[in-house]
Each structure stands twice: as structure tokens, then as C-alpha cells.
Fold each of these.
Amino acid sequence: NPYQDLLTDTVGGSVLLLTLNRSDARNALRNNTLRELAAALAQAEQDSAVRVVVITGGPKVFAAGADIKEMAQLDAIGALTDPRPQYWKAIASFSKPLIAAVNGYALGGGCELMMHADIAIAGAGARFGQPEINLGTMPGAGGTQRLIRTVGKPLAMKMVLSGEMLDAAGALAAGLIAEVTADEQTIERALALATTIAAKSPLAVRMAKEALLKSFEMGLDAGLNLERKSFSLLAASADRQEGIAAFLDKRQPVFAGN
Ligand code: HXC
């Protein structure tokens, strides 16, 4: 394992499981943690065997946010020139599916990390919050922008301005997470979902992810245009011929990735 703050496992040959491994600091995301996450994803991006990545934390804490002790050292210019935004950007630009398996607390940067994932699965005991306001500051890794786009204004305002946490049922109702499981089954369920997605055509998966995410940035007309072009381009892929042929032959498709 080349990492200090992360454990890596390959599951079933096509799913990479990344586990935050700094439980003594409640998986606080120090710069090194984000640097390692970005590096692990950059490697997964290059590795065609990796189809889906699952990120998880510990049983009681997914991640307790930015490392407050590290952040305390930063003045304004330090924060401006900090490498963190570049690591977050690298995580956000990962082109393969990223699934978060969340147990326990996902707070501040931990909740923001979860929102960088494409799908979040959480245990029934999970708690979500943006408590930065309690420290006299505010979210700095997408917690205002991604949260409001995901759960809408009333709840995003309540969470960011009050620091109050949401439980798993509330997060599910708000659309912040996709599923709630029993706490002991969160990782298993996330890996099963990852395995399902890993068996699909990686080209179709990548283009669908891109089109879905671009909806946050594009107007409807431009978004529909991107969707149509991606859909058309996929008609040139061998996997699309295979998928349609398999359906017509009443057999399971085998996607080669081209
Ligand atoms: C650095 C942290 C930390 C954090 C916990 N620790 N969270 N260190 N950064 N975000 C450290 C504690 O200082 C303590 O270290 C050890 O982890 C155990 O913490 P406890 O509080 O005793 O653990 P527990 O009772 O299990 O409670 C877990 C918790 C709580 C509910 C997650 O730790 C918590 O509320 N943490 C802070 C959450 C938060 O405010 N996050 C937002 C971060 S701000 P020692 O050395 O005493 O053992 C952010 C961006 C802005 O994300 C930052 C601007 C400054």
C-alpha cells in the first residue's frame, strides 16, 4: 500500500475500494489524505481493469471534515495558495463512477467528499452535516454549491446556516443519498451496486455520468444537445452493438470496453 491515509482493495477484479484510514483523527481530511485520494483516482483512471471506485470510511465516522488542526495554520493567502482545491478538482473530474459507502458521521469536508461521489449509500446510523458555521467559517469544498443543487434551497440553507445534522432517513428523503441500508451492510451493498455497474459498458457509463453531471452546469438546450451527441457517438461503439445483439439473442451481453 503506497498510501498513509488510505487502504486500497480490489474487489472482483473491477471494483477498487478505497478506505479512509485515519480513525485516530476521525478520518479528518488533511491535505495528505486529499492528495492520496486524488492520486489513487488518477491511477484508477488509467487502469482499464478498474471500472468503478467505492470510497468508505470507518464504522462510526465516514470523515469528520477538513483537518481543523491543519486548517488552523492557514491565513487567507495560505488558503488561497493551498493545494486542496486542486485535489478536490482532481476528485471531481474522475470519469468513472464513484460510489460513497457512508457509516457514521459525514461532516463538513466529509459530507462534501460524499457529494463528490456519484452515488451515496448510507447506513441507517449515518449523520450528515456542514458544521463549519460552528467554527465561524463556511463550507469550502462545494458544500454550498453541490448541496443546494442536490437538496434544494430550504434544506441547504438550514444545514449550512445552522450546522444541524440530517439523519439517514432525512438524507434519503432529501435526495442527498440514494439508499439506506443496515449499518453492517453498507459496504456490501455499495460493492454489489459497484459490481453491477462494473459489468456495463464503460463507455456508456462514462458518457452517461458526464451528461448527468453537466446538467448542473448547462442550460436545458445545451444539455440535451450534449446528451444527443453522446448518445449518437455511442452508436459507434462495439459495446452498443453487443448490448443490442445480446438482447435480440436473449443472452447476457459481454462488454469489452470499446
Ligand atoms: C481534526 C479532528 C477532527 C477534525 C475530530 N478530530 N474531528 N481533528 N479535524 N475535523 C480529532 C479530535 O480533535 C480528537 O483528537 C479525535 O479526533 C477524536 O475526536 P472526538 O471529538 O473525541 O471523537 P468523537 O467523540 O468520536 O466525535 C466524533 C465527531 C467529532 C462527531 C466526528 O469529532 C466532531 O464533531 N468533529 C468535528 C466535526 C467538524 O466540525 N467538522 C467540520 C470541519 S471544518 P485528539 O487529539 O483529542 O484525540 C471543515 C472545513 C472548514 O470541514 C475548516 C476551517 C477551520
Note: The first strand starts at residue 6 and ends at 11.
Amino acid sequence: KRCAVLISGGGSNMMTLVGDMTGDHPARPVLVLSNRPDAGGLAKAAALGIPTAVVDHRDFPKDREAFEAELNAVLERGDPDIICLAGFMRVLTPVFVDRWAGRILNIHPSLLPKYPGLNTHARAIQAGDKEAGCSVHEVTDVLDGGPILGQARVPILEGDTSETLAARVLIEEHRLYPAVLRRFAEGDRRPIVLSTAAESPIN
Ligand code: GRF
């Protein structure tokens, strides 16, 4: 299976996905694509010999369709079976999502359906939640709303800031996303919940 990874920043999630796509893993990374030319993840991917590309959304002011048309053109060259959004910070229109329906995954730093959108950690702390976490879901027309394929939970501790909580969640993101991608690439869409021990399928 050919996997493209879309990033906007440092690409730590992309690096864990790429690092796991080896050996008997049914997928291989064929492209790392960013909407930001200065995304730190681009150099990391290039250093691993993975083809990279940039489609700068600022070249398409107020024209989301044109941006996505260029995104599609570049993606189609990579001919991906699976697209992983990993710290990708652009909202994709239903046109794009329908074009790649059933093949796009995203990681979101909250226990969906709680806290779709931005500032998830601050909102969880503000709400007095006892736990937070991350979710990998299939991307559909509903922002952060598609079928959940995996979740990992962390405690919210006394004195947590959104930074300390984000750091704790990011560790779980790096465990969860590769685990979900591996199953998804094998055609298994049963959701998993990562416990501190190992994966346990939600029965
Ligand atoms: C992470 O906090 C993740 O939750 C969100 O984007 C942030 C940066 O991810 N999706 P990365 O280091 O660029 O993978």
C-alpha cells in the first residue's frame, strides 16, 4: 500500500508513521506533502529519502478549491492508497474528502467527540476533565467527526498547563497512530483503545 503523509509543522507524527512502515508492514511512505514551505518535517522526510512536496496555501488566497486542485495534482503523482494527515492544519473541503473517500486518516489531540477543532488541551483543563488524549479517525465531511479508529487516554494532572498536557498526549499520539495505520493498511477498521499496556480492541 502506498501512503502519503500531509504535514504543516515539525512532523513528529509523520516520523513515527514512517519509522513503523518497514518490514512486513503492508504500507510504505511514498510522499510527504506540506502546505508550509518552512515545515520542519520536510527536511526530516527528505533525509530519509522520501519524496517531498509543498503546496503553499498562501499561493491560493481565498481560493480553497484551487489550493485543493493543486494538492490533488501533486498527490496523484504519488498515487497513494492511504493519506495520513499528521499535524496538517488546513481544513479540507468535501470535494477533496470525497475524492479520497475512505482513504484519509487524521490524528486529533482530544478524546473525540469531545473538543473537535483547536485548543483542545486548554479546553479539557478548563472544563475540569480528569483525562485527555488523542484520537485517530477517518476523515469525512464533518471536521474531526469521522469514524474513530483508535484512542489513547492520559490523566490530566494537578497544575497541568496546555503545554504539559500536550507533551503527555503527544507521546500517546506517537504510539497510537502507527498502531492504527498498520491495522488500517491491513484492511482492519475495528477501533482500538491503547491502554498503558498494549492495544486492546473495543469489543
Ligand atoms: C500535534 O500536537 C498533533 O496533536 C496535532 O499536530 C501537532 C503537531 O504534530 N495533530 P507533528 O509534531 O507536526 O506531527
Note: DSSP finds six helices and nine strands in the chain.
